[in-house]
Amino acid sequence: AQSVTQLDSQVPVFEEAPVELRCNYSSSVSVYLFWYVQYPNQGLQLLLKYLSGSTLVKGINGFEAEFNKSQTSFHLRKPSVHISDTAEYFCAVCNNAGNMLTFGGGTRLMVKP
Amino acid sequence: DTEVTQTPKHLVMGMTNKKSLKCEQHMGHRAMYWYKQKAKKPPELMFVYSYEKLSINESVPSRFSPECPNSSLLNLHLHALQPEDSALYLCASSQMASTGYGYTFGSGTRLTVV
Asked: Do A104 and B42 touch (CB under 8 A)?
């Protein structure tokens, strides 16, 4: 079985400040890790993914994430946020078979002017 | 074409109605999924189709009936729904052999049951 925990349900931050959204996972086998963003009344858009190799993964819109196997974490970071980054962010884990994508509870990023 | 297209975008139906949600992709993906998302909650898996065959049913009530007519289409037939079934229904697809591409999601159908 696999599970994902997003430690913060809401993260308020001022524009141009750095932000980190935390994600921890548990699984008995190796997994693939993803971050998705959901803007209001829209579907989910893939931000970035970790499959193997380099533990630092760069994605779209200036986001990056670091895979830490010993801490079973996959935290998402951005050095300087914009108002347009206000959205819901979901961390997700996928099993090796690729047919079971499990989401964390989500973190609402609120960027204030 | 790198999109998953869902229709309709919005649907209001009564508890005695029969309706269908449609999902289409032309990326050659051989796995397709239905997710249900309630407000302020993460998406929850309902069904998984792999090579047009139902491979996972997450104990979904029978008033939801999926159908995969071919490798590009996925339908969700709705009948005798309850108000608590109101939610955003998301379709997704992925390449089965490799998960490296992740899932591609549609923009969803917002369903309201009255």
From this structure: yes
